[in-house]
Every structure is written in C-alpha cells, then in structure tokens.
Amino acid sequence: MKISEIQPIVLTSKEKGAATWASSMILVKLVTSNGEIGYGEAVPTLRIISVYNAIKQVSKSYVGKEVEDVEKNYHEWYKQDFYLGRSFESATSVSAIDIASWDILGKELGAPIYKLLGGKVRDKVPVYANGWYKDCVTPLDFAERAKEVMGRGYKAVKFDPFGEYFNWIDEMGLRESEERVKAVREALGEDAGILIEHHGRFNSKSSQLVAKRLEKYNPLFMEEPVHHEDVEGLKEYRERTNVRVALGERLVSLKEAYFYISQGLVDVLQPDITNIGGVTIAKKVVDIAEARDLEIAFHNAFGPIQNAVSIQVSATVNNLLMLENFYDWFPQWKRDLIGNVTPVEEGHVRVLEKPGIGVEVNEKLVDELKAEPEALDVKEEPVWVVGGTWKRYLK
C-alpha cells in the first residue's frame, strides 16, 4: 500500500496535565492509497510550531512510498536530511511517521506490533509512576503523595527533588533535595523503587555532590545527572560516584545510542520511541543494549499513542526494567482519545491484542480538540518540570 497522505494534528484543551508539555499533543495521521489509517505521535515541548512544520517536510519523503517498507523509508530520509543526527525536530517527525507506518503494517497483517517483532515475552508490562508530584514542594508533600501513588499498586516512583536549582547547587539545595528524598524513602519503605530525575540540569561537579548525598537512600537509578551534551562531565560522574545512571530520552539516532552504550556511560537506557527513530530504530537499540547487559526503560511521557506503541515494544524486550508511566496523570482527554484502554493495574499495563499499536483513536474527539500550532509562553518554571515544583521551601 502506498502512502497517500500524512497530516500533523495539534491537539489541546483547557484541561491541562501535570506539566506544560502534557497539555498539548502532536498527532500524526497517515493514510494509505486504500484508505487505511495509522497514527503516530511526535514530541511537542516548546517546539510545537517547528515540529508541526518539520512533519510536513519529512512527509515529502514518505508520500508515494510503500508503507510496508519501514526500513527503506527511514533510510531514505536519513540520506536526504543532512542534519537528522543533530535535529530533534527531524528525528521526532520521522519517528512519528514510522510509528504510524507500523500501526498500518500491523492492521494490514491483522496483528499487534509485538507479533511483528518476534512475539511477546510478557503479558503485562511493569511500569513506574511519573507526573504524580504536581505542586509538591515540602518533604511532607512528596511523602504523602508518594504513599497515595503506591496505594494504587505502583511499585516504583520517579521524581525530581531539586526545585529551582539549575547548573549549580548549594548546601541549602542539597539539604532540600535530601530531605525530600529521605521523606519519600521513609514513607514507602526499603522495598519500593525510588528513581531520581535530574532532567539533565546540573554540571558534573554539582551532580556528584548530589549523588554523594542521595546514594544512602538506595535510588534505583539517577536519571540524566548532567547536561546532555556534557559527555566528559558524564564520564567524570561515572568515575567518581557509585550510583546507577539512566539516560536516553534525548538520543535521536542509532549511532548516538551506540556511543553511550559502548562507552559504558549508562546502566539503564531510556530511548524514546517518538525520538529515536520510531519502532524501526528502537528495536535495534534494544538489541545493542541487551548485548551489553543494559536494561531498558523507555521514556514515555507525552501521550496515548506514544504510550500504546511503547507498551507493544516493551512486551518484546527481554532486558526490560520497567516502562515509564504518566497515564494516570494525563489530562482526561488524552485517556479518552483511545477509550482509556491502557489502565495501570497493580503496577502493570496489559499488552493489547488489537492490530497495529493496539488502540483505536476517537476521531470525533480529535476534531473537537484540533488547534492551530502556537508558540507556548516561556515562564520562569521550565516546561520540562512537573508543574508547581520549581520552588524552594527552606529560607
């Protein structure tokens, strides 16, 4: 089947999510010559307009091609775009189109994606909670909310305890962060998984100070402890700390992922299927990681299409640690978009058996939520943090 149309669609609503990035969504609708429809999802962040336009450009390479030729089509764009390995906009656009292509491929063959990737190794995918700590500032805020989350059946929680600190952190910041983490650990007990999100906000020296203060609370991993581009700083962090490192959401190519894996810079790899190159590249990254005994925990923070395809691929991954999960903290409209068919039950999500990515999109709701791409306001609190947490509590 030839690809006849690719349409980027921006969705938003007055109902917001746990963070600014969760309040919008970029859906990609792919239509074939016989009318089959597949869906993908691209990453919005602060770049809604540029990603929307990039999808239109990447589409020029895909329209008229056979939808089944996912490998060939990806590499044609790799050939055409001189800056794919350095462009987030290009990478998320080609990823979204690739996901939509796999959705159609599954529908054409009458099989969920996991069957096209070698079959599943689990019926339910373990997940950890993120997005749960909106407006949490004090240690008590974090502890009480974390207990509520564990009461839902989650076995692990991820959170960013660093308030408004960026690049550098002082003694007050270290104390604030430690008290928040200590409160969560004491509230949940020693068996719960605690994952510390840094959002790549620190220089290496500051992140090393953080690691020395927090390692006693036995974090499952420290995510993006240094600025993403600071490779030398990450190497120094690895040499001078005793914590496990997780990273990967900003990786945009197979070779970039291979570099971090081969250099021993990561313990838990977190590729994002909507960034890394879709299903086509994600499955290769997983195999390379498995060969080096790394665990996989896909980054999964944006919307229900990303969530659906991440569940499908995670079902096939032998070296899966857990899948990130924002689902319970999405705005309701994102759950409604797929009929709320991927609920979390006792810390797991059931692998769906419907063809393609396993979900059906409510096109009536798409029409209701459709909006023109607009630039987001830039405020003191960055869009990448969970809302209401860019604050100190010690004076």
TrEMBL record:
Top-level division of the source organism's lineage: Archaea
Q: Per the record, what are the reactions this protein catalyses?
A: D-gluconate = 2-dehydro-3-deoxy-D-gluconate + H2O
Under which EC number(s) is this enzyme classified? 4.2.1.39
Keywords noted in UniProt: Lyase, Magnesium, Metal-binding
Report any Pfam family annotated for this entry. Answer: MR_MLE_C
Q: Into which EC class is this enzyme placed?
A: lyase
Q: Where is the Mandelate racemase/muconate lactonizing enzyme C-terminal domain?
A: 139-244
Q: Does the keyword Ribosomal protein apply?
A: no
Which InterPro entries does the UniProt entry name for this protein? DgoD-like, Enolase-like_C_sf, Enolase-like_N, Enolase_C-like, Gluconate_dehydratase, Mandelate_racemase_C, Mandelate_racemase_N_dom
Annotated GO molecular function terms are: gluconate dehydratase activity; metal ion binding
Task: Identify the CDD domains for this entry.
Answer: MR_like (cd03316)
User: Family assignment?
Assistant: Belongs to the mandelate racemase/muconate lactonizing enzyme family. GaD subfamily.
Q: What name has this protein been given in UniProt? A: gluconate dehydratase
